[in-house]
Structures are given as C-alpha cells and as structure tokens.
Design goal:
Number of helices: 1
Number of domains: 2
Helix content: 10-25%
Largest sheet: 6 strands, mixed
Number of strands: 10
Shape: globular
Distance between the termini: 105 Å
Structural class: alpha+beta
CATH class of the largest domain: Mainly Beta
Radius of gyration: 25 Å
Strand content: 35-45%
Length: 161
C-alpha cells in the first residue's frame, strides 16, 4: 500500500513540476525578446545619441547601445564613431552574434573609432557602440557610409591610346 501511494504521489508531483518548468522557460524567453530590442538605424545612416548606464550592461563594467541595419553581400562600409565624452569602441556583429569587425582608436590617433569592412553575406547586422573599459558614456555621433569602388577611367570608356 505504501509503495502504491508513493508511486501515485510522485506521479502527481512530476506532472505539475514539469508544467511549471516549461511555463517558466517560455516566460523567460518572451521576456528576453522584449528586453533586447536594438534601435533601427535611420535612413540617413547617421545618429547623434547618448550612451548611459541605462543601456546594455557588458561584462567589462561598461554599457553598450546597439543599432540594427540591413546590409547586402558585397557592401563595403565605413563605420565612424566619435565622442568628446568617452573613449569609443565600435563593433559590427552578424545576425548570429559573431563579431565581423571591431575598432578602438581610429587612424588619426584619437580615441574615436573608425571601422572599414566588406560584407560577404546579406542580412541584419548590429552596430554596437560602447566605451573602452569603464570610461563611462556621454554624447556620441555614429555614421555608416556605404563605400563605392573607384572605377578605372580606361575600363569605363575613358581615354586610351
């Protein structure tokens, strides 16, 4: 009698416990989708914004702000991030979260960032703005430029001898 009672009692606990775990997992997944919502890059491909402690916390003690942009395979882009308030880092992330490219200090020797890259796949990309280490935040300007190849004058019907 005791074994039969224990078997029924454990079955009665397993089913509700399983349902509870499944519902909590689904609720957590919905909450995560609602929490992470990158800002769409405007049609001008230029942003003046502010990085604050209300943005995405990163493991290095700082914060990041993400911008979503659709890019095409073969696009060559320059991503320029400037700030008078903090040492900038710009990162381009693929849809799967992998890093396509990253830049800390630009070629001019300043703490601004300038990233050049050529894309091999079309899709939604994330441009991540963050400060170096725990250097804080503040106002910044972000600009995405799609670069065009320079054509050879001779190849396009220019003068030839």
């Amino acid at each position: 009698m005791t074994k039969a009672f224990a078997a029924r009692f454990s079955s009665a606990l397993v089913v509700p416990a399983t349902l509870l775990v499944v519902s909590l997992t689904a609720a957590a997944a919905r909450a995560q989708n609602q929490l992470y919502n990158p800002i769409a890059m405007p049609p001008t491909n230029e942003v003046s914004d502010t990085l604050t402690d209300k943005d995405i916390p990163i493991g290095e003690g700082g914060f990041a702000r993400d911008y979503a942009v659709n890019l095409k395979a073969g696009d060559q882009v320059a991503i320029d991030l400037t700030s008078e308030s903090f040492d900038t880092i710009v990162t381009l992330l693929a849809a799967d979260g992998s890093t396509v490219g990253e830049n800390d200090d630009g070629p001019d020797g300043s703490t601004n960032s300038l990233l050049f890259t050529r894309l091999t796949e079309a899709g939604k990309y994330i441009i991540r703005v963050r400060a170096f280490g725990e250097t804080g935040g503040g106002a910044f300007k972000l600009k995405l430029t799609r670069l065009r190849p320079v054509s050879d004058g001779n190849a396009s019907g220019g003068n030839s001898k």
